[in-house]
# Entry
Amino acid sequence: SQQGEEDPQALSIQEGENATMNCSYKTSINNLQWYRQNSGRGLVHLILIRSNEREKHSGRLRVTLDTSKKSSSLLITASRAADTASYFCATDPIRGTSYGKLTFGQGTILTVHP
Amino acid sequence: DTGVSQDPRHKITKRGQNVTFRCDPISEHNRLYWYRQTLGQGPEFLTYFQNEAQLEKSRLLSDRFSAERPKGSFSTLEIQRTEQGDSAMYLCASSLRSEQGARTGELFFGEGSRLTVL
# Structure
């Protein structure tokens, strides 16, 4: 079953604009991760934010995490046509038998027009 | 290339046939995961291994599905008596879990094996 919901399901922007994607989840987490998937390909890890962190940056990516609202957002600044892909959030549960087993959301399809 | 490799990349089969997918993880990774992804959806967890031990199986994994990881290296996922509903992308991923229980946290995915059942 899917842990989270992502919003929006699809996002279409012009090159140079910023793209924001949101993720909500249901259970307590150890960390939350964002992945990117080009059409027909495997997933590529983008960034990981731990449950005790509120914000993290990596290049043009900025991730926030609000554990009280069980939500996260991914911001891609100054988007490029090459950023066109599907983006998934994935939650890593707290320690226990499922430790390390990621549960993915349904994804946001991002299209960046040149 | 030292990434996760999957074989075959594409498989077309007739309903009722058996299929097997292979995954070779990153060599130093001790955890290996199988996920299934259908069109427009996120990956759904199927099963995972720590070394050669299968630690958890999803309820999605019916009796027709079996996964192995002999010797804690490569893994195979076999689907017996395939059904049209099995058509999906089967993704393999690996990660590293240290002896102290810490790990890098991220999964490294292969390119997937796309199954089409006619």
Q: What stands out?
A: Chain A is about 0% helix and 55% strand. The interface with chain B takes residues 1-2, 31, 33, 35, 40-45, 48, 88, 90, 92, 97-98, 100-107 of chain A (CB under 8 Å).
